[in-house]
Amino acid sequence: MATQVRILPAAQMKFFRNTADVEDLIRKTIATYGSAPEHNYYWYEYCGGIAEFEDANTDNQKNVFVLWPDGSGLLTKENSKEFFIFSEPLAPLEKRIAILNEYLREVLESGKAEKVTLELETAEHLELVRSLAEELKALPVSYILTTPIMDLAKFDPELPGKKFKYIRKAEHKFKREHEIEITDAKQTPKKELHALIDRWKEERKGKDRAVETEYRNIIEGEWRGTDHAHVFMIDGVVRGLNAGWRIPNKNRYYAAIGVHDYSLPDFGTLLYLEDLRWMKRQGHREADMGGGEETLTEFKNKFGPSRWYKTEIFTIVKK
Question: Which end of the chain offers a freer environment for a tag, N or C, measured as fewer CB atoms within 10 Å?
Fold first, then answer.
């Protein structure tokens, strides 16, 4: 049986199609209702709203911010007749399903969109599907991202015990064999950072989505929106970088970016470990280590996360 959800009048929604002009409004909405890792104005823009990097391909995608009178909102994207809802709704928990339904009915039943793709945690996905209007239907889940949460209060940077023996040995060996320098990404020539992204893209073997455009944009955007952006120089060459930001309204930090060029054995382990140590030193209670599919999740599980959550990517269409 479908869950009954009160649908608000469509006239209450306002669509802002030039998100740069309403930056302050979006940032205020995020500050009030933000709770998800990607609730970050600049990351939203880097993911298709702007093309800071002159060769970035955003596939004609346009960011559109949707606002309700109570200050709730949706970060959305439009690409011809295919629309996307970027991250979770910016709304009180009890109102999220209602505004999702209102938005879906407005854009799908009017013919503005032929399909809308969403990324929601499992429970919210199921609740939305149960509450859909009779005229709409959900397609099967396209893929699932698993995200580990690290309890930094319990994380011991020394990695004691048999469980972490391999990681300790790999780190010690790497540090014996290489000269390591950690620097500020903002002070690193952009050309060197783009070259790193070139090598990362070429060597990437996993099935997880590569987000080249976002990385190009954040480099050209001078790392705006990040609270840290660290470059790892190995033997004098840029080989990796970490970056992230605090999740709004939570004592949790988002390890948004961890990139290396796969040129050195066990360097990915060192990069991940150094990010955990940095976040702990900053006093963050928890770390969201970012979602991935099977290969990436197996790697992250080596560091002993306290729990996981799943995000399901799926599409809603008109029957």
Answer: N
